[in-house]
């Protein structure tokens, strides 16, 4: 018993795609990247906006590096963001200042720390902090008082007066404010967590690919469909325009559009999208030229359907297969173009984390003992691009008409 045609075609395509192990691996990689992008700061080790928490003492530390941190409460109002603001590009400004330390000791109501330097022949700076100031946000114009009974009296930022035993504050500090932080992928030259920066850069690549591919599909389908359906002078003009754009090197055209629109994240969407529609338009035009002579198009004309309805309700659904395959390929190209523009300094601007800009900032470290700083973002680009290429190849094989016929459609 046969099912609905569109459902059968979708089922057959998915059945063929599931047999392609490489395409499934690509889908899994893309799925992981999408989840990292959506969850944003909720799963990053550095949950600040754009993973931009710097600590220059920890510059270019190797993968797996661990250090003891002291969390010092900032004397300001707590930063709290709703759940939705922590997704995608969002995050929460830290309520604490992180100080890497080598050792610490208590003296009365103070904690004395030796800051971390990473140099065996150079002692870090000694810093003395009030225990109350480490644990609580204090008022700027109120002093911490120490009485004879071993209590500290202090004024919080909100104006509250607190009196707590020194020993209790020490235990609270040890439990809540001293911890060991591990940088699994090391740190960059500004002391930022490289793993968090890589995770933050994922959404840059995916969002540029998604929106620029959407722009290219809209323009390509519109121009290709009207050229193939109406033919004549409209077709000649569209073909001429396609050939002109096609003759310009893609990267140079993107650079020119970016310079005209200005540097920035949103400008990249438009610049890349305006250069990727050509291939879509060529394929759609060719498909529409062949489909416009079919019987169902003639039947639609004889029933009095408008050209707009015939094109968008009857012809275009039959050309979406090749468009989907091209879109997967264009997605990979968009990721590469965005990385190239960011490497040249005209893509996503700091403090945004882009894989291309990460390579630019650290390519000089390739010849020293910190090559991972440039290699890891390069591997991320390669892995995501390869995933889209594998999915595109799988879709091409699954949508192939001969494969569908063999499957019994």
What does this structure look like?
- This protein is α+β, with helices and mostly antiparallel strands and 409 residues long.
- It folds into 2 domains: 5-36 and 195-406, MetI-like fold, CATH 1.10.3720; 52-191, no CATH class.
- It is 54% helix and 12% strand.
- The protein has helices at residues 5-18, 21-39, 131-135, 166-176, 194-230, 232-247, 250-261, 265-273, 277-291, 295-302, 307-315, 320-344, 355-362, 372-399, 401-406, and strands at residues 65-73, 96-107, 110-115, 126-130, 145-146, 151-155, 161-165, 178-183.
- It has a 5-stranded antiparallel beta sheet with strand order 4-3-2-1-8. A 3-stranded antiparallel beta sheet has the order 5-6-7.
- Helix 9 runs antiparallel to helix 12 (320-344) and helix 12 runs parallel beside helix 13 (355-362).
Gist of the model:
The protein is α+β, with helices and mostly antiparallel strands.
Keywords:
alpha+beta; 15 helices; MetI-like fold; 8 strands; 54% helix; five-stranded antiparallel beta sheet; three-stranded antiparallel beta sheet; 409 residues
């Amino acid at each position: 018993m046969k099912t609905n045609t569109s459902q059968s075609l979708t089922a057959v395509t998915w059945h063929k795609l599931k047999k392609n192990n490489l395409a499934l691996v690509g889908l899994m990689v893309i799925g992981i990247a999408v989840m990292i992008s959506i969850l944003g700061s909720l799963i990053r080790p550095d949950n600040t906006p754009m993973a931009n928490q710097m600590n220059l003492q920890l510059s270019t530390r190797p993968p797996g590096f661990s250090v003891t941190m002291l969390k010092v409460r900032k004397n300001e109002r707590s930063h709290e963001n709703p759940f939705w603001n922590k997704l995608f590009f969002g995050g929460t400004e830290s309520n604490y200042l992180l100080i890497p330390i080598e050792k610490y000791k208590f003296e009365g109501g103070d904690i004395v720390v030796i800051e971390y330097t990473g140099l065996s022949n150079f002692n870090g700076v000694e810093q003395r902090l009030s225990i109350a100031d480490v644990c609580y946000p204090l008022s700027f114009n109120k002093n911490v008082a120490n009485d004879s009974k071993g209590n500290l009296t202090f004024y919080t930022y909100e104006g509250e007066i607190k009196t707590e035993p020194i020993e209790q504050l020490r235990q609270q500090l040890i439990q809540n404010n001293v911890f060991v932080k591990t940088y699994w992928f090391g740190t960059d030259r500004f002391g930022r967590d490289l793993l968090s920066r890589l995770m933050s850069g994922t959404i840059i690549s995916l969002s540029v690919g998604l929106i620029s591919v959407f722009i290219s599909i809209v323009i390509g389908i519109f121009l290709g469909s009207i050229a193939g359906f109406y033919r004549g002078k409209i077709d000649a003009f569209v073909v001429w325009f396609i050939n002109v754009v096609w003759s310009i090197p893609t990267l140079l055209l993107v650079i020119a559009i970016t310079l005209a629109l200005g540097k920035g994240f949103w400008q990249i969407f438009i610049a890349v999208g305006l250069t990727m529609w050509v291939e879509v338009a060529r394929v759609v035009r060719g498909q529409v030229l062949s489909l416009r002579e079919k019987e169902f198009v003639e039947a639609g004309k004889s029933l009095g359907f408008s050209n707009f309805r015939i094109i968008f309700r009857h012809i275009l659904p039959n050309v979406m297969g090749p468009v989907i395959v091209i879109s997967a390929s264009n997605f990979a190209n968009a990721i590469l173009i965005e990385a190239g523009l960011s490497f040249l300094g005209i893509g996503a601007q700091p403090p945004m984390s882009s894989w291309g800009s990460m390579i630019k900032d650290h390519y000089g470290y390739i010849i020293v003992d910190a090559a991972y700083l440039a290699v890891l973002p390069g591997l991320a680009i390669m892995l995501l691009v390869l995933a889209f290429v594998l999915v595109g190849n799988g879709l091409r094989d699954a949508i192939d008409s001969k494969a569908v016929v063999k499957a019994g459609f």
